[in-house]
TrEMBL record:
<comment type="pathway">
    <text>Cofactor biosynthesis; tetrahydrofolate biosynthesis; 7,8-dihydrofolate from 2-amino-4-hydroxy-6-hydroxymethyl-7,8-dihydropteridine diphosphate and 4-aminobenzoate: step 2/2.</text>
</comment>
<dbReference type="InterPro" id="IPR018109">
    <property type="entry name" value="Folylpolyglutamate_synth_CS"/>
</dbReference>
<dbReference type="InterPro" id="IPR013221">
    <property type="entry name" value="Mur_ligase_cen"/>
</dbReference>
<feature type="domain" description="Mur ligase central">
    <location>
        <begin position="50"/>
        <end position="190"/>
    </location>
</feature>
<keyword id="KW-0460">Magnesium</keyword>
<comment type="function">
    <text>Functions in two distinct reactions of the de novo folate biosynthetic pathway. Catalyzes the addition of a glutamate residue to dihydropteroate (7,8-dihydropteroate or H2Pte) to form dihydrofolate (7,8-dihydrofolate monoglutamate or H2Pte-Glu). Also catalyzes successive additions of L-glutamate to tetrahydrofolate or 10-formyltetrahydrofolate or 5,10-methylenetetrahydrofolate, leading to folylpolyglutamate derivatives.</text>
</comment>
<feature type="domain" description="Mur ligase C-terminal">
    <location>
        <begin position="291"/>
        <end position="405"/>
    </location>
</feature>
<keyword id="KW-0547">Nucleotide-binding</keyword>
<dbReference type="InterPro" id="IPR001645">
    <property type="entry name" value="Folylpolyglutamate_synth"/>
</dbReference>
<dbReference type="Pfam" id="PF02875">
    <property type="entry name" value="Mur_ligase_C"/>
</dbReference>
<dbReference type="InterPro" id="IPR004101">
    <property type="entry name" value="Mur_ligase_C"/>
</dbReference>
<protein>
    <recommendedName>
        <fullName>Dihydrofolate synthase/folylpolyglutamate synthase</fullName>
        <ecNumber>6.3.2.12</ecNumber>
        <ecNumber>6.3.2.17</ecNumber>
    </recommendedName>
</protein>
<comment type="pathway">
    <text>Cofactor biosynthesis; tetrahydrofolylpolyglutamate biosynthesis.</text>
</comment>
<dbReference type="InterPro" id="IPR036615">
    <property type="entry name" value="Mur_ligase_C_dom_sf"/>
</dbReference>
<keyword id="KW-0067">ATP-binding</keyword>
<keyword id="KW-0436">Ligase</keyword>
<keyword id="KW-0479">Metal-binding</keyword>
Amino acid sequence: MIDAKVAVEAALKRFERFNPTERVLTLDRLLVVLETLGNPHLDLPPTIHVAGTNGKGSTTAFIRAMAEAAGLKVHVSTSPHLVRFNERIRLAGEIISDEALIGYLSRVEEALQGRDITHFEATQAAAFLAFHEVPADLLILEVGLGGRYDASNVIRECAVGVITPVDFDHMQFLGNTITQIASDKAGILKPGCAAVSAIQRPEAEAAIRLEAAKTGADIDFLTSEDIASIFPPLGLAGKHQFANAALAAKALRAWGHPAITDKAILTGCATAYWPARMQRLAEGPVTAMASDVPVWLDGGHNPHAARAIAETLDDLDREESPKRTMLVSAMLATKDAAGFFAELNRPGLEVFTTEVVGNDFTASAKVLAEAAQSAGLKATACESFEAAMRAAVEAGAERILICGSLYLAGDVLGQNNELPR
């Protein structure tokens, strides 16, 4: 009998042969396949659609926790995964089983009939089949890339459109200005649907308001008063998470389901879980590399995320007494490494760089170290993740933060035997 995990990987691998020769953002390829499958995307539970640059995962986690605290059954679609692909599809509260996932992928493969489709589009089709066939009260649908032409945006209506903070992101596809990027992400807004947005920089807010006006969506922006209404404890670390929790609460209130009470919102704030967002690692093979030094993990990979990480490090210093923090970092070559490191420049901090194993788009450890040095940090390129961890300890680390890539974060969680639940 074939191991189920191996069978999932084999089913996913088969989609590579359908990849279009030219990478063009379009919904047409997916819509043709969905029609063959009976248009499952047109018959889904009430949907909260989440786009943005930073905070999508955390905001989604808060929405889910609040809705589940209200007793609702919740589907969730997220990307990328950290350790196993199954993490991307949560059905009525449970990560999809290997057997169910293989079945949905096989049905999509049969429907393709040789047509071109991207890997992400194909797997989104499988997710829509699952969300259509398994009953639930709510679907939280997270955008993969951009908004307007993302595979998730084939839906024709939603209960609420959510825009998290917009920053520079995927500029080769979305444009070189905040206005262009915000306009693309606001492309998820639907005529007449409720919509909420995080506090945005002025040019992003203007672009989002313009898109909302075009569609007739009723957009409501987060305020400082909204954030002040969220009280500790929070299930996710960092002051920036209060804004994400407040945005989640605003989205659910805009939906207007009677089960969403103040008690459910506060309970969800405290119980929200999202791995690799300033997560302190438990005992395991990775933390053993650091001896008694506490090890934290964050998948943030752009300057906006780095600012949030820096604020959380400041909070930890106030709560636990100041500790000398060392970074162990790997990033993709497509990211703004110098901008990321510049936001983390603090006294005594050093960076030990490595590479994302098995990823063709990884930045080299040498290039990454040079980027950190250009941001004013002392940095050393290391031959492996294990070597970087050893070097950080030997340099006198009192706290180690592993950061810079969700792919790195996934590898670390797998190595430390901490599978996302």
